[in-house]
Hints:
- It contains 12 helices and 2 strands; from the N terminus they run H-H-H-H-H-H-H-H-H-H-E-E-H-H.
- The protein is mostly helical.
- The chain has a two-stranded antiparallel sheet.
- Helix 3 (about 155-175) runs antiparallel to helix 4 (about 180-210) and helix 7 packs across helix 9.
- Keywords: Coiled coil.
Amino acid sequence: MTPSGRVQDTLRSLENASAKASKRITTRTTRVTSVGNEGERSDEVKSRSSAETAKSMMQRVLEMLAKMGNEMVDLKHRVSEQSDTIRKLSATVYKQSTIIQGQEDLIRGLEVQVQESKEELRRKNDEQHEETRQVYQDIQKEPPPYAKRWWTKDLTRLRQTYTYWRNQARAQRRAGQPQPDLEQRAKDAAKEYHDNVRKQKKSHWDDFVTDENNIWKVVKYLKPGVNMFDDKVPPLRRADGSITKGKGEQGEELLSTFFPPLPTNIEPEGERPQREEIAMPDLTLQEIEEKVMAAKPWKAPGEDGLPAIVWKKLWHVVKHRVWTLFDSSLREGVVPQQWRTAKIIPLKKPDKDDYTLAKAWRPISLLSTLGKILEAVVAERISYAVEAHGLLPANHFGADLQGLENGQSFESRQLRRQRGVQWSLQRAAA
């Protein structure tokens, strides 16, 4: 019950008690008057005791009212304190909501900036690739117009000459008037034509064999009993026994075998101790140029069809654009889609019984040469950071990013370098 309700109940009880006391006093006074002097003394005593009872009741009521008043004052203080606390909490909540709103606005602004940066990087990369591809298409050699690689225009002219004199001599024979001069001339034209064909074949084969870029093609030609078309993927047999039809179904079957779906439930690895972040210096044009010039010129390119020789030949023109792309990619933490898209080439696994199964083939992924150059730059930096800051344990052996032999640690590498420097100084002093 609330204090106000308790006060009202107490007042009602007080009124009822006062009314009862007054009624008793009035009754006893009337009785004293009617009876006379005989009962005057006893009624007077009774009236006095009733008055004292009412007085004591009034005193208790007043004490109760005073106590309830004190409780009301305490309650008022507590309500006031709680009101102040609520006002403070409201102000704090308002401030927190304002801060959160500001943070949300800031996050939205940053997200917009990141998205714009990604779009800008993607746009620059697309423009760079399109311009480079156009230049490469303009400068690359056109495919030979003949079905046979060794054929030339001179052979075409000799074949036309040989065909003409052969037809002339044949027409005379059919007419029953053979002419020895025409027959001899046709034979000479035939000999000259066939001699030049054999000479051209030999010359083209010598050039083909001496070209280091054709070494694996030459191996295929030299192996006895090897069919040049064995690398083509045959119709594949699925797990349910059905056979693929067309290249589309073959590609789907190979991709599902090469890259199976991830498990639905992957357990988290949990938190691991983290090292302090290592500051990396700004990207320089020199380190990019070193990796461009060290790349193999004619290694198989990715989906864009641009080998490393393109970047080597055009480096004086595109170097600043390439540096801008690489620097933006590292700063924004974004890799262009063209650099992450691989061209998958299926190769036979050796010594398999049935090549109609997708698991008898293995994939190789051909990536963009420009993206691989950036990977080489980052790998060089990681290799330096690992050595300079001692990021690997002392008992680590092998798997050096610089291509050390198996079983050789960073410590042994440093000792070898130190001995080399000492030997050089000793030879110079001698």
